[in-house]
Amino acid sequence: MSYEVREPQEQKISVELTINEALALTGVRFWQNHKLEVDAMQKIKKQLEEQIIDKRRNMQ
């Protein structure tokens, strides 16, 4: 799946993460809980997909 935003200014999204999820995305390793990083990435991907889908609906 590839998406390209064709607008001159960058769009922004908001994703609510726990402190530990945010830390996991910066490279901090939680050896007992790798799921933190996975969950954080899933939240980001879900928000991106929702925004792209909403944008496409508005264009039609």
Please sum up the structure shown.
This protein has about 60 residues and is mainly alpha-helical.
Description:
By secondary structure, the chain is mostly helical. It has helices at residues 19-25, 35-59. The chain has a domain at 19-58. The mean pLDDT is 85. Residues 31-58 form a coiled coil.
Percentage beta strand:
under 5%
Radius of gyration: 14 Å
Oligomer: single chain
End-to-end distance: 20 Å
Coiled coil: 31-58
Keywords: Coiled coil
How is the topology of this model organized?
Layout: H1 19-25, H2 35-59
Helix pairs in contact: 1-2
Descriptive tags:
single chain; 60 residues; mainly alpha; 53% helix; elongated
